[in-house]
Amino acid sequence: MSILVIGEALIDIVSSAGSSDRYAPGGAPANVALGLGRLGADVELLTDVGDDFHGGFLLAHLRESHVRVHARPTGSTSTARALLSADGSAEYEFSLRWAPDASLVGSGDWAAIHVGSIAAFLTPGAAAVDSLLQRGRDSSALLSFDPNIRASIIGDHEQALARFESLAARVDVVKLSDADADWLYPGQSADAQVDRILRLGAKQVALTCGSEGSILSTASARVRVPAGAVKVRDTIGAGDTFMSSLVHDLQSTGTRFEDMDEVMLTDLGENASRRAAITVGRAGADLPWASEEGA
């Protein structure tokens, strides 16, 4: 059985002081699908791209990483301008659309379904997200969600929080960054943020905290996994690498969440951190292949 990823694929236009713009394939869910394909998973991506040069480039890029893409190309491909700061972190400006054709995925069952980022919040495509998540719940697929908050385009805080919590209540795994969590739940500690998401119904929460590492938690076990020392080229794709690693490892092992102890959670976090370190050490969302040392 395959893994279905649902969400945007777009072109990152990377800008930094003193350099020419660099164009690269991106979109958080597309990056997760790409990462899964490179780790050897059987993966499909439901997305929305244009029939322009950028759309063709995206489709070829994903297929080279063994992703089966479901899209009906038309119009212009979405873009995200990533503005890099001196420390390699990025801020984004978007030109987007999100209207996938859910009928393209057919009636198959999946071992796991991952949804994420802008596509989880924007209409009309959010309806496809909800429909396919329900199919996953009905078939007992592993369900995961990464909100990858982009505050400038997902609506006001109250509406976005309600949508986030609605989705978090329906999935098994929620992964988010500390910046996401602080935007959703300002003024709360990391542990309080994790506790709140677990109370919504998620069975596992992973909170990434940049150079400070990550927190992985179920209702009965919680660990803090330090980040390894790494030379950062840029942080584009780091969180997506962490997410793809979690989905890959959870789907591969099939361990029940209620049976996970601190050792199992630590292994998950260390694998994800090691893979993310490879990504941040090179330009753009260039996620690791299983054949690479340390992947």
From TrEMBL:
Family membership: Belongs to the carbohydrate kinase PfkB family.
High-level lineage: Bacteria, Bacillati, Actinomycetota, Actinomycetes, Micrococcales
Species whose genome carries this gene: Brevibacterium aurantiacum
Claim: Kinase is one of the keywords in the record: yes
Domain of life: Bacteria
UniProt keyword ATP-binding present: yes
SUPFAM superfamilies the record matches: Ribokinase-like
Listed GO MF terms: ATP binding; kinase activity
Domain Carbohydrate kinase PfkB: 3-288
Protein name: Carbohydrate kinase
CDD domains with a match to the protein in the record: bac_FRK (cd01167)
Keywords: ATP-binding, Kinase, Nucleotide-binding, Transferase
